[in-house]
Write a structure and sequence with these properties.
382 residues; alpha/beta; Rossmann fold; 2 domains; six-stranded mixed sheet; five-stranded parallel sheet; 11 strands; lipoprotein; membrane
Length: 382
């Protein structure tokens, strides 16, 4: 596991330099290093493959009988059709219907509105619990405050929440991910694919969860190419969740990065990412998707040719596994974190556009799993 430690440590040292966020909507900030906007990047070699660095998903548990469950799903902003985070959660529910005997008639889906009040979020969760849905799955960290109240009111209802671990109640199960690890890998891909030595990141809302994506992406890119420039933009500031549902703004911001010389852009912006893809398509450059394998999403078929990979965040697996565990009456089978080690995050290969660099990507993946590379969860100022 420790072979090549010196080389990997050197790679890590350069990789730990990460970008500070652009604070104003539409204003890009280069990720340190100065660098050049043209020509080939100077690239480091991939770390030597350490032993014991393979992903080791837990053995698949037998499918439980979920025919007796009523499952409520409270979507984040955008709901089904966002081609990203919510669709992944919906796919997990659909799989439970298909494979666990869960009756579709015994499911209910409700969707959050942009910038709604905590009372509105609580009312949605309370409605599902009062109508007998058990378990109830809250999709997104924005439900945390409301869930803390409603779960305490309904101690006999099991709840799960995606992307939050702050609600410490016996009937609440967190479903959290190592987004920074998957983002590191697509940062490596971007640095290996860029021809301008300049890439971009578009975040939906400037808050800690999305900054995990940014931190990993920049660290991965700079592990490969220490002088690479990374333009970082957020569509809205913390508290304004419209950044996850504004494709037009995503297109404008991505166009600005492309005009500035970026030729690969990674988004973590929910439905707004559709606008990022449109901008990249118009410019004839490359994009990196998020959450789902966006190359294969039917609603994105017109831009699939520019999506070279996606950072896979297996919300679908987490939702399915949670329903399966709830049906079996044993939630202890769930991992504490869905990370690279359990295949909870990763990168997509659909379209074949990263087939030529999978050896390097998998070397970095192994180094992260083995602990040789530690991925940052917060950006550091340049």
């Amino acid at each position: 596991m420790r072979r090549g430690f010196v080389l990997a440590a050197a790679v890590l040292t350069s990789a730990l330099v990460v970008v500070g966020c652009a604070r104003d909507t539409g204003t890009s900030q280069p990720a340190g290093g100065g660098g050049t906007n043209a020509g080939a990047c100077a690239r480091n070699s991939a770390p030597s493959a350490p032993g014991g660095g393979s992903a080791s998903p837990a053995p698949a548990l037998p499918n439980a009988d979920a025919s007796g469950l009523k499952v409520g799903l409270a979507f984040d902003i955008g709901g089904r059709g966002d081609a990203s985070f919510n669709d992944a959660a919906g796919a997990g529910l659909d799989r439970a219907i298909s494979e666990l005997g869960l009756a579709k008639a015994n499911t209910k889906e409700l969707t959050a509105g942009p910038n709604e009040s905590e009372d509105a979020a609580a009312t949605r969760l309370r409605q599902l619990a009062s109508e007998g849905y058990n378990p109830v799955i809250a999709v997104g960290f924005k439900y945390a405050t409301a869930l803390k109240t409603v779960a305490a009111e309904s101690p006999n209802t099991q709840f799960a929440i995606v992307d939050d671990s702050s609600v410490e109640l016996p009937n609440v199960t967190p479903l959290v991910f190592a987004e920074e690890q998957g983002s590191f890998l697509v940062g490596v891909a971007a640095a290996l694919k860029t021809q301008t030595c300049k890439i971009g990141f578009v975040g939906g809302v400037e808050q800690p969860l999305i900054q995990k994506f940014q931190a990993g992406y920049v660290q991965g890119a700079k592990a490969v190419a220490p002088d690479i420039q990374v333009d970082v933009d957020y569509l809205t500031p913390a508290g304004d969740f419209t950044g996850f549902s504004d494709p037009a703004k995503g297109q404008v911001v991505a166009t600005g990065q492309l005009d500035g010389g970026a030729d690969v852009i990674y988004h973590a912006a929910g439905a707004s990412g559709q606008g990022v893809f449109q901008a990249v398509k118009a410019a004839g450059k490359s994009a990196i998707g998020v959450d789902s394998d966006q190359h294969n999403i039917p609603g994105l078929s017109d831009v699939k040719d520019v999506i070279i990979t996606s950072m896979l965040k297996r919300v679908d697996v987490a939702v399915f596994d949670y329903i399966n565990a709830a049906a079996a009456g044993n939630l202890s089978t769930l991992p504490d974190t869905f990370d690279l080690k359990v295949d909870g995050v990763g990168y997509a290969t659909s379209g074949g556009k990263v087939d030529d660099i999978t050896t390097q990507l998998d070397a970095y993946k192994a180094a992260i799993i083995s602990g040789v590379i530690s991925v940052e969860t917060t950006p550091t100022s340049s």
